[in-house]
Design brief:
about 300 residues; alpha/beta; TIM Barrel; 2 domains; eight-stranded parallel beta barrel; two-stranded antiparallel ribbon; 12 helices; 10 strands; globular; binds glyoxylic acid; binds magnesium ion
C-alpha cells in the first residue's frame, strides 16, 4: 500500500479521557491530532478513554488533519485491547496508531501483525492503518535502525523527550528544554540526529517531542526552530497556543519556497532543453544535489499551502 505523504508540522496531543478537550481539538489548525490512551490517561480511566476515543473518531469532523490514536505500549496489559477496540470500532476514521516506548523491532512487528488481523476482521483495506513509533529510552535509541525498518506501515519516528530524560538520568525536570548546567551545546542533539538518520534511511518522517512549558513561547520557538533546522518534519504540541508557532517553524519561508521552485524550474530546463548537469542560477551553481534539496523545501511549502507567486 502506498502510504502517501501526510504533513505533520504540528501533532496535537489530546487526552482521550477528556470529552471537553476532544471536542475542542476538532477545530484547531494542527496537521495531526492524536487521541492519547497512554500517559495522559490514569490506569483507572483507560477503559473509559478507549470508549471516548472510538466515539470521537466515529463522530468525525476532523477535517484534513491526520487522525491518530496513541495506544499503550506493547508491554502493558492494555495494548492489545486498545488496538482491537479502536480499529474494530472506528478503523475507517483512523489514519495511524502511535506506539509508545518502542524498545525493539519486535514491538512494531507485534503491532503490524495484530493490525493485519483486526483490519481483515473489520473489513478494512490491508495495510490501511499506519504506525508512528516513539523512541523514548536508551534501549529504543540503541535499536532505532532496526525499529525504523520493522514494518511497511511505519510512517514516522517520534522522539519522546520526557521518558528519554528519565531513562538516561538527565538532570532536569523541564521536558524539552536544555538541562540547567549543561555546557555542551544541545543536550538532545545525539538522540535527535540518530532518530533523524534512522528515519531517513528507512524513508520515514522524523518528529520531535513536546515542549511542556506551555506559556514559554520563546523556549518553544527556539526548540522548534532547532529541530526544523536539523531536518525534522514536525513537533508535538500539548496546548492550542503552541500550534501556530510550531506550524510556522516547520514551514519554509515564502522566500525559500519561491527559490526552491525557481531551482527546480531552472534545473529541469538545464537538464532537458540544454542537456547540462550543472548551471548557474543567479550567483549560485546548482546541480542534482541542489534539485534534491529544493524538492524537499518545495514539498513542505506546498503542504503548508504556500504559493510560489
Ligand atoms: C512523550 O511521550 C515523551 O515521553 O516525551
Ligand atoms: Mg513518553
Amino acid at each position: 500500500m502506498d502510504r502517501g505523504y501526510r504533513p505533520r508540522r504540528s501533532c496535537l496531543a489530546v487526552p482521550a479521557s477528556s470529552s471537553r478537550f476532544l471536542a475542542k481539538a476538532r477545530d484547531l489548525p494542527a496537521d495531526e491530532v492524536f487521541l492519547d490512551l497512554e500517559d495522559a490517561v490514569a490506569p483507572a480511566a483507560k477503559d473509559e478513554a478507549r470508549e471516548n476515543a472510538v466515539a470521537a473518531l466515529r463522530a468525525g469532523g476532523w477535517g484534513a488533519k491526520a487522525v491518530a490514536v496513541r495506544v499503550n505500549d506493547a508491554t502493558t496489559p492494555w495494548a492489545y485491547q486498545d488496538v482491537i477496540s479502536v480499529v474494530s470500532g472506528a478503523g475507517g476514521a483512523l489514519d495511524v496508531l502511535v506506539l509508545p516506548k518502542v524498545t525493539s523491532a519486535a514491538h512494531v512487528s507485534w503491532l503490524d501483525l495484530l493490525l493485519g488481523q483486526v483490519e481483515q476482521a473489520a473489513g478494512l483495506a490491508a495495510g490501511r492503518i499506519g504506525i508512528e513509533a516513539q523512541i523514548e529510552d536508551a534501549a529504543g535509541l540503541a535499536a532505532v535502525e532496526a525499529i525504523a525498518a520493522a514494518s511497511p506501515r511505519l510512517e514516522a519516528l517520534v522522539f519522546g523527550p520526557a521518558d528519554f530524560m528519565a531513562s538516561i538520568g538527565m538532570r532536569s525536570l523541564t521536558v524539552g528544554a536544555q538541562p540547567p548546567g549543561y555546557a555542551g551545546g544541545d543536550a538532545y542533539h545525539y538522540a535527535l540526529m540518530r532518530i533523524l538518520v534512522a528515519a531517513r534511511a528507512a524513508g520515514l518522517q522524523a518528529i520531535d517531542g513536546p515542549y511542556l512549558r506551555v506559556h514559554d513561547a520563546e523556549g518553544l520557538r527556539a526548540a522548534a526552530a532547532s529541530a526544523a533546522a536539523l531536518g525534522f518534519d514536525g513537533k508535538w504540541v500539548v496546548h492550542p497556543a503552541q500550534i501556530p508557532e510550531v506550524n510556522s517553524a516547520f514551514s519554509p519561508s515564502p522566500g525559500d519556497y519561491a527559490r526552491a521552485v525557481r531551482i527546480l524550474d531552472a534545473y529541469e530546463r538545464a537538464t532537458t532543453a540544454d542537456r547540462r548537469g550543472a548551471v548557474m542560477l543567479g550567483d549560485e551553481m546548482i546541480d542534482e544535489a541542489s534539485r534534491k534539496m529544493a524538492q524537499v523545501v518545495a514539498a513542505k511549502g506546498r503542504a503548508a499551502g504556500l504559493d510560489a507567486g
